[in-house]
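Hey, can you fold this one?
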Amino acid sequence: MAHPIRKRFGQHFLTDSNIIQRIVSAINIQPDDNIIEIGPGLGAMTLPLLRDYNFQNYLALEIDRDAIQSLSHSTKGIEKFSIQEADALKTNFLELLKSVNKVRVIGNLPYNISTPLIFHLLNYQQRISDMVFMLQKEVVVRMCAEPNSKTYGRLSVMVQAHCQAENLFEVPPSAFNPPPKVDSAIVKLTPLNEKLELKDSILFANIVREAFGQRRKTIRNSMRNFLEQDDFNELGLDAKARAENLSVGEFIKASNYVFQKQKTL
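Sure. Predicted structure:
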C-alpha cells in the first residue's frame, strides 16, 4: 500500500536513486558522527546511510506517524538508529544533545518551514558540526548570496553571520513524488568557529530586519532608528549606500557599535 502524501506536512518524497546517492556522498558520514535527521519520511536518505556507513548514533525526527511506522519497520534491529515523533520547530535540541558533544544535522526540509527551522537550529550552533539540507533552490541562492546582488538580503546576512553557506548542487522536481512546483538545491551550513562576536544577537537581528525592510532606501533612512550621520562616519559607512551594499561583517560591526552606544546612554 502506497504511503499517503500529507499536504499539511509539505511532503515531497525523494525517489531518484542517483540524486539520493549524490546527497549521501555529499554528507560524507564519518565513523565518529552523531547524526540527527529531520523529516526522514520513508527513509530515502536514511536507509542508504544506515546500509553503507558506520557512525556513532543516528536519531530521526518525524512528524508523520504513518512514516514513523513505515521507517521503524524498515530499520528494525538497527541498534544505533532511533526515531521520535517530533515537530523540529518546537524541539529543544539541547535535550536531544545531552549525551553527545557535537552532532551533524541533515534533512529534506518542507519548504513551508525551512527558514524558521534553520533560524531555530542556529540557536544550537555551538553543538552542531554542520547541517546539510535539501531546500527550495531560491532559498539556498539567497542564503549563499554575496553583497551587491539582488538575492542578497536579510536571510543571507542572518545565516552568514553564523555559518559558512555552500550551495552544493541543484535537484529537479522530477526527483520527487509528488514533483514540487519549484527547483530544489542542497546546501551545507557549517557554523563558524572564529565568528565575529555579536554583542547582542537580538539587536543585530532587528537592525538587519529594518535595513532590508526598506531595501530601496539608503541606510541613512532604513537604519535611522539606530544610527545618525556621525555614527556612519565613525563606522566608515557610506550613508548613501543601501542595505545590499553592506557586508555581513559591516552589519555585525554596526550592531556592536549600537550596542556599546546604548550602554553609555
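The chain has two domains: 7-191, 201-264. Let me know if you want another pass with a different chain boundary.
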